Amino acid sequence: SEMTLLWLSRQLWRHRVKGLLVTLVKRTSHEDDRRAAATTDVRPIPEDPGKARPHTSTRGHPTESKRRRPPPLAFLKIHKTGSSTVQNLLFRLGEKEKAAFAFPYYTYQFAYPERFRSQFVDELPEGAAQFDILCSHMRLDLAQLRQVMPQNTVFFTLLRDPVRTFESVFSYFTATVPAFAQAKAAAAVARKSALSVFLESPESFWDPGEIRNGLAKNPMCFDLGLNSQGWNASWPEDLAQLEDAFQLVMIAEHFDESLVLLGALLGLDHEDLAYVRLNARSAGSVATLDEGTVGRLRSWNALDVLLYDFFLQLFWEKAELYGLDRLERDAALLREAAERLRQTCVARRGVPPGDLEDLLRPWQTDTATVVGYELRANLSQQQQGRCVRLTLPELQYHTSAGKNLLIANIPGIVRHSNVHLRK
């Protein structure tokens, strides 16, 4: 089947990059030895104290000895919401904290689109007492997830405007979601865009009994384990259960502010939260949407609109508790920290996949071009390690299985670059 062929191609691609990844060796920096004792405290997002807070350097952890280890984390990675950027941040945090990752036993997703089951998780790493971080794609089942993660786990996720989410889902999965593939075939005959043909009559392409069509209607609801096909009597209770389970639902349109609230929840500072945006499409792969198309998208994804609006309101309630002025200040500091890191690491952004070697090339589909980053030349060994991690795509990080990586000086990571690997 087409899905089987897609899986096989991904396996071949993952084995191809594995040859590069096995050349990376474990590194223990002196900073790792200055970690604070672990704590199991889960702290709520603090309210604005209304007074000056102790000065925190934007260059690191001046009080590293007092820094608490973050609690266990479960991040529900929802498709095409910007979640790959958050996942990369968690991978880097987990490496720094020597966390035990709950990785999928099979490929890089938890048997998606099946509902999550505890048996989908690989074995606990040797020497670990519990899983500390889970952040791979799944279709949520809260009861099963709680069997895997410790009782004090912080649950959080990321939502995005439903119109842009669906446009991105359609662009990325046109060839693999059956409803989209049928629309694409019809569009070739009609000489129209596949998205416009689909939206003219989505019910004619969408078979709700086909699980591979899960992303074809209300994809965020589908990933969250909700009934995504239509409103039913259980919806209010299911939504309330999600509100109770997730300490934070981030909003992509307020990404930096969301990260600030996450940092407050987990005890992280701006340096911990610095990022570059990953898994972004080229400008030519993003559809321009007119008013009529937006209306049809909102109508077809009405439950995602409801979901998004509900958690957007909750987000601003949390923001007000934190303090809106304070949130704005801290988001500006985060952007400064992220820009410093980008200036250190990135020579060129939006790099076409053909200019990238396997290790830093994002997974490509037949219908969307996903761009990446070219790193600066002449980085120090320590900078190389940090910068490669910063820009390492999802599948490559899964292939490395959460191990600490050492980037050294042998040609090959980025074409036309002096960033290297050493055996």
Strand order of the biggest β-sheet: 2-1-3-4
Taking pLDDT < 50 over at least 5 consecutive residues as the criterion, the unreliable ranges are 1-41, 51-65, 401-423
Sequence of secondary-structure elements:
HEHEHEHHHHHHEHHHHHEEHH
Number of helices: 16
Structural class: alpha/beta
GO cellular component, one term: Golgi membrane
Subcellular location: Golgi apparatus membrane
Family: Belongs to the galactose-3-O-sulfotransferase family.
Pfam families: Gal-3-0_sulfotr
In short:
It is a single-pass type II membrane protein. By secondary structure, this protein is of the alpha/beta class.
Describe this structure in words.
- Pfam families: Gal-3-0_sulfotr.
- Belongs to the galactose-3-O-sulfotransferase family.
- It is a single-pass type II membrane protein.
- Keywords: Glycoprotein, Golgi apparatus, Membrane, Signal-anchor, Transferase, Transmembrane, Transmembrane helix.
- This is Galactose-3-O-sulfotransferase 4.
- There is one protein chain.
- The protein has 423 residues and is of the alpha/beta class.
- The chain has a domain of 279 residues: Rossmann fold (3-Layer(aba) Sandwich).
- 42% of the residues lie in helices and 6% in strands.
- The protein has 16 helices and six strands.
- The strands form two sheets. The chain has a four-stranded parallel β-sheet with strand order 2-1-3-4. A two-stranded antiparallel sheet has the order 5-6.
- Helix 5 crosses helix 6, helix 10 packs across helix 14 and helix 12 crosses helix 13.
- The longest helix is centred in the C-terminal third of the chain and has 22 residues.
- The protein is globular.
